[in-house]
């Protein structure tokens, strides 16, 4: 499938989710069931199947880890600087976290898996695991500190470690390290389930998108879009290239970090004192715009 067709396919699936939601075909309960399948079944299957057969020394590399952290913390710093004057704590905190918090799971990894080879996909799985363990605590800390939210930080971290992606990644890396195999029937089943990650995740994302009506700060939304889907992939390309990363690392790193703002940031914003209307709008706009920017990214990296 060509890059243009692939991005058209993505846009179509997002549209299916939006239309299904607006027509009542996908109700909130049905969307939640689809999300549970994608998050607890398809995505862990994709993470495990992409890592267990790859040499761990080629997957977990210094340039991958250091490059990921360098880009993420540089973007966190830029976000704090750019959004320092946004009026209102709730809006400022949301603008900051949504300028760096990437949708690694429901868009990034499935897109990499459907576009690049197994080694690149394995590295993207590492980015999903390590990136989530990095950006989630930072996001919670930013929202709690700016909004003075009354929440136990420890409880939020405990919930993060309950996500099924982390044990799936650890298990896959252990299989790789000890050279353990998987029966062909099991491997085929895992691959079949993993192949559903992208279509199901995209429909879920589409059904979760909501552009809140009413007034909102166009400048703030525009700056979030500019930082998240334009600056972040460019910075990722510069950082990974400057570190002398191999091409599979560049492909995984740039594509994953080019993903739009994660839908989960809306949940965090709602729970931790952020502006939910702005959070919803930012998720919607970055996701729609990212269809075009990801097209450019993939055409460059292939």
Automatic annotation (TrEMBL):
It is found in: Cell membrane. Keywords: Cell membrane, Membrane, Transmembrane, Transmembrane helix, Transport. Its main location: membrane. The keyword Transmembrane helix applies. It is a multi-pass membrane protein. GO terms for biological process: transmembrane transport. GO terms for cellular component: plasma membrane. InterPro entries: Mem_transp_PIN-like, Na+/solute_symporter_sf. Pfam families: Mem_trans. The chain crosses the membrane at residues 6-27, 34-53, 59-82, 125-144, 165-186, 192-209, 221-243, 249-269, 281-301. The keyword NAD does not apply. Belongs to the auxin efflux carrier (TC 2.A.69) family. This is AEC family transporter. It comes from Halopelagius longus.
């Amino acid at each position: 499938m060509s890059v243009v067709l692939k991005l058209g396919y993505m846009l179509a699936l997002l549209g299916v989710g939006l239309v299904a939601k607006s027509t009542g075909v996908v109700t909130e309960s049905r969307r939640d069931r689809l999300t549970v399948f994608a998050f607890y079944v398809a995505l862990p299957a994709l993470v495990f199947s992409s890592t267990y057969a790859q040499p761990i020394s080629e997957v977990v590399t210094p340039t991958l880890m250091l490059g990921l952290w360098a880009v993420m913390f540089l973007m966190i710093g830029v976000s704090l600087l750019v959004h320092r004057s946004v009026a209102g704590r709730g809006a400022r905190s949301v603008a900051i976290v949504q300028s760096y918090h990437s949708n690694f799971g429901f868009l990034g990894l499935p897109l990499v898996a459907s576009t690049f080879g197994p080694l690149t996909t394995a590295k993207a799985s590492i980015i999903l695991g390590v990136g989530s363990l990095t950006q989630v605590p930072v996001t919670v800390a930013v929202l709690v500190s700016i909004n003075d939210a009354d929440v136990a930080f420890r409880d939020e971290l405990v919930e993060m470690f309950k996500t099924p992606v982390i044990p799936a990644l650890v298990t896959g890396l252990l299989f790789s390290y000890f050279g353990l195999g998987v029966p062909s029937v099991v491997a085929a089943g895992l691959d079949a389930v993993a192949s559903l990650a992208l279509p199901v995740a995209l429909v879920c994302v589409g059904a979760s998108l909501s552009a809140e009506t009413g007034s909102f700060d166009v400048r703030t939304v525009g700056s979030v879009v500019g930082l998240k889907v334009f600056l972040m992939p460019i910075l990722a390309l510069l950082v990974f290239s400057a570190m002398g990363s191999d091409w599979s690392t560049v492909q995984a790193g740039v594509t994953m970090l080019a993903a739009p703002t994660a839908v989960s940031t809306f949940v965090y914003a709602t729970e931790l004192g952020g502006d939910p209307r702005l959070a919803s709008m930012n998720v919607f706009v970055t996701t729609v715009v990212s269809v075009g920017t990801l097209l450019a990214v993939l055409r460059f990296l292939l």
